[in-house]
Amino acid sequence: MSDSESYPKLPRNTVNRYGKPRGKYDYTTIHSIVNSTPILHISFPTPSASDPFPAILPMLGFMGSFATPSSPLSAPLDLYLHGYISSRLMRLGSSPGHGEEEGFPLTIAATHMDGLVLALTPNHHSYNYRSAVLHGYATAVEGVEEKLWAMERITDNVVANRWENTRIPPTKTEMTSTQILKVRIVDASAKVRAGGPSDDRADMKNEELRAKTWVGVVPTWTAFGQPVASAENRVKEVPGYLKEYLEGKNKEGRSNAENAVLGVK
Known about the structure:
This protein is an alpha+beta fold. It has 8 helices and 8 strands, in the order αβαβββαββααβααβα. A 6-stranded antiparallel β-barrel has the order 2-3-4-7-6-5. Pfam families: Pyridox_ox_2 (PF12900).
């Protein structure tokens, strides 16, 4: 894989433990993990001498390119985050540049759990998982066209085709109260674990231990249940686009978890 298809490996983002079999730096792996994770966790420094702890928030977001909306996951992409205009992170993201970089520094984490890996000894228990950590600089999106584009993409990243099946466009108040941060990613890495348990040779030779201890993988995925209508709902049947989305995501989640048992990353 060429350098143009991957993030640079730096001391900050290099996967050390099990780095060779599990560490990934390519755009496709990292971007697909981020765009399929329902909630991203965003960590940022607090500019206060009296508070030594960085802050962390759960947020909605997606990776894409406003300049080239048709860009695939294998291309360089920006991260867009959605929030309320007066929140602390959104205010910081609108502040002047920091150091030599333009924007406010953020660390973004995304994680999928694909299975419980149960071994002969607790020390070898694990998860099958797909995780990504990204570093970048955030600035507020000022252009109305780009802001609307990002709002639509973030909405449809929650439920495909939801934007066009609601009351749009947003009102002036909604546009004013909503802030979108655009994060220019400077480096990132993913870590992916798939397969079954791996036990010590000595334990594998212990027939008494193996006779009483179940080992294997419990596939794990997020499942969407049957939609429950609000008391104010006036639509008699669940819309087809919503049914299709939920069924597709349930199949995808199960397939990912079962493939991970087989060692497919």
